[in-house]
Amino acid sequence: MQRNEIVGRLHRRLLDESRRRFVEDVRIGASYVAVVLEGGRAGLAARLKEAVGTEIEPRHDPGCYARRGADALLDRLVQGAGAVDRALGLAAANALIHPAVPGEESDTISLMGLRPGERVAMVGLFRPIVARIEAAGVRLTVIELDTAEAERRAALGDCDVAIVTATTLLNGTLEGILSELGRPRHVALIGPSTPLCGEIFRDTPVTHLGGAAIADGPAALQVIARGGGTPEMRPYLRFVNIMVPRS
Question: For 51, which of 15, 27, 83, 161 could close a Cys bridge (C-beta 3.0–4.6 Å)?
Fold first, then answer.
């Protein structure tokens, strides 16, 4: 796969619908951005921590986006000049996908079926779930942007389970990570930014998408506007897990 191929698929999949929807509100915070479409359909995406402070901030005035077609924001997913632009594009995509709020959350870790002795590669540190993963008796390797290439390749090539942050869609590293995998039995792309659109991953190693539905849009927007992150926003989200369909 080529770099950014998956976001290109997502853009093409949603483009027609985006031309029929209008933007109601946009919030740009220190950790997340959110896009609200007509009818209250909201989506969010994380800001890349490594990009904060390295680029000119876009306008934070929601009024400059209101009543524009959703395609104007979705296009930023593939045409955006900066990290915030791309995050706005992904948030628009998630608003268009608009997963239903589940009555009961499924458990992301349980769906992985971790077994003692298995090798787990975690791309991006998910601190809240590390203890549960290690308690399963697995051998966990955390891969960050500054991980040495040899160590990264070895961990990805030998893992039984890979857990990958959805922000790899924003920094253009997802396709490279997937290409370095050996033959893992389970590959999960997780985090509130995850686009819950299984068909764009159908021919990839990804088997599991773990994202979020927004249960209380106004409250989540307030958290984002004041710079809060996932822990502060968690009460207003419901985690959603889907398995990627195979042909």
Answer: 83
